[in-house]
Write a structure and sequence with these properties.
Helix content: 10-25%
Largest sheet: 4 strands, mixed
Number of helices: 1
Number of strands: 4
Structural class: alpha+beta
Mean pLDDT: 86
Low-confidence stretches: none
Strand content: 25-35%
Strand order of the largest sheet: 3-2-1-4
Shape: globular
Order of helices and strands: EEEHE
């Protein structure tokens, strides 16, 4: 790859995320839990966002989920928690 070119991103299925925050950043760690024992998962990637970016992401994701449910019906979340949170540092 020559200088200035970027690799194309790879799509990876995730069904779990651990979320944490500190004074200057929000951290999202994505995992695959499908096919794993309960409470286990394969680490896929970590994203770090500024608080402003995290707030905008939350708003846009909320809009997208609302539109999805309007089109396809309510999303079932009864299969157990897939989001873990950590206290702010």
């Amino acid at each position: 790859m020559s200088q200035g070119q970027q690799a194309k991103p790879t799509a990876v299925f995730v069904d779990g995320v651990a979320i944490g925050s500190g004074p200057r950043a929000f951290i999202l760690e994505f995992v695959q839990t499908l096919g794993q024992e309960r409470g286990a998962g394969i680490f896929v990637g970590r994203f770090v966002m500024t608080p402003a970016a995290a707030k905008e992401f939350l708003a846009k994701l909320g809009q997208l989920v609302a539109g999805h449910e309007a089109r396809f019906g309510p999303i079932d979340t009864d299969d157990g928690p897939r989001i873990l949170t950590a206290e702010a540092n």
